[in-house]
Design goal:
Blueprint: H1 3-23, E1 27-32, E2 38-43, E3 49-53, H2 60-73, E4 80-85, E5 91-96, E6 102-105, H3 113-127, E7 131-134
Parallel strand pairs: 1-7
Antiparallel strand pairs: 1-2, 2-3, 3-6, 4-5, 5-6
């Protein structure tokens, strides 16, 4: 193999590795629901939805702005995080804005409060650097 072949092979392997890593990353997905509202969901590398907004948005722009606010506020004291038990006696979290509005929550419950708190700690850690994918 000549030097150029080795270099090209190395670059192909590096790009392939990067693509695989990107697919296995935390991410936000912005999409349009059946009611034609825009929503986002925050997913872990396995595809589990960890957070959703408290509402739908009339435009993609407002939805994307909501993602950026979530990324900024999840680690701030501008919002209140509540942990509560749902009707099935599972623990959930929700993010409440200073005006009392629910701005994000977990879509499914956790068996224990400790599991829910651990999941939220992961969200706090990963959300700020997560990629935002906007679906057409």
């Amino acid at each position: 193999m000549n030097r150029l072949s080795v270099l090209v092979t190395g670059l192909v392997m590096l790009v392939s590795y990067g693509a695989a890593q990107a697919a296995d990353a935390f991410k936000f997905e912005v999409y349009q629901d059946a009611g034609k509202e825009y929503r986002w969901r925050f997913k872990n590398p396995e595809g589990k939805v960890l957070a959703t907004p408290g509402q739908g948005y009339s435009s993609k722009k407002y939805c994307e702005e909501s993602v950026e606010k979530f990324k900024t506020n999840v680690n701030s004291d501008k919002v209140k995080i509540e942990f509560y038990d749902d009707n099935k006696k599972q623990t959930r979290w929700r993010m409440i804005a200073s005006n009392g509005q629910n701005v994000a929550s977990c879509p499914s419950g956790y068996a224990t409060k400790a599991e829910c708190e651990k999941a939220f700690a992961t969200i706090k850690k990963e959300a700020k650097d997560a990629k935002v994918e906007v679906q057409p």
